[in-house]
Amino acid sequence: MMDMILKQQQQQKMIMTPQLQQSIELLQYTTLELEQFLYEQQLENPLIDFQPPSFQERIFRNSHSSFQTTENDLHTITAKPNYREELLQLASLTFTGDDLQIVQFLIEHLDNKGYSPPYLSNVADDRHYYGIQLLQQIGPAGIGARNLQECLLLQIEENNDDLQRLIQKGLYLLAERKFPELMKSLKLSKEQLLALINQLQQLTPIPCTLSSVDDIEYVTPDIVVVIEDGALQFSLNDRSLPSIQLQDSYKNIASLLPKVEQIYVKQQYKHYEWLVHSLHRRRQTIIRIMSVVLQHQQQFFYHGLSYLKPLSLRDVATQIEMHESTVSRAIRNKTILTPVGTYLWKDLFSSKIENTQTEHSQTSILEMIKNLIIFENKQKPLSDQKIAETLASSFQIHLARRTISKYREELGIPAASKRKEL
Known about the structure:
Strand order of the largest sheet: 5-4-7-8
Structural class: alpha+beta
Number of domains: 3
Largest sheet: 4 strands, mixed
Radius of gyration: 31 Å
Shape: flat
Helix content: 40-55%
């Protein structure tokens, strides 16, 4: 017979309250997301009063006293005019009747690189090609082409027979760097082929860019790092955030309200206090993390990715006495503007490569491999084995050939045989 036993047990367990969950989300927000969240809070809580930053505050306010600037920190890809609309207007001024109809139809179906689909419903091939020829009169050469080969052919003179043959019959061999086979197939000397390749490189594989305003990507850095008087300084780019205050009218009438409404006001007041506290904690957390990163990665901020040292979330968490997950949440999705470029903050964290006598991060080694390939002899491109030997002899970085191959593929760089030039 089984006896039933009643047993008490004490256990520590973290309960994720709604406010704690929201505090975690707040830490993860970018500056733009935080600004939107704050204005939503104002709508939900009548006790919150926001004072939008003045023009002077937007220019001079900073979150870290070591840095002030009058620069505009909003970095964007400049919005261009809608080129598709311009083409449609040009078409209406240039063509009439059926010609106008087919050109407008083609323009509306161009992709964002200026190419036509291979086939258009209810449009015969000869009619399609005729429309492409008309497009050449109002747009850049090659616009409306159905593939790369056609795009290049539309850009060359009709009497350039050798270049025409290279495009029609030799693009695949050229892409594969099979130069001897290419010279034999087209009956060309090395000098002739080099001259044709030079002509080919003057052509563009992308006739135009038909981007719309919706395609424009805006990048607002969350943190800005500058070199001032030879020293590195950083600032949180939070000038656009409003200052938070308690609504004066509620301070004066809260005690005069009915009891039910007083309870509501107290709840909203607690939420206001939580918001102020959470915002302060978020700023301080980001500043503490960035202070460690700035100190550890000094050479990167002066010289670029090749000088990025190994740095883990755990390293930073230990130094600032916070949990690793807090550091992870704080750096998530945030952008940092530096003297050597704009990066995601997480890109400044990189694992250490063990097979090195000196301290190198994976990111810095990737940059070294990329630079070795950029400056290699293109007639005799470096094999993965040769890259491994160069890293070992020049930088005391000892990596296997297969590791080099893996890193090269991560960089999107083809093998040596595909990089060879005449």
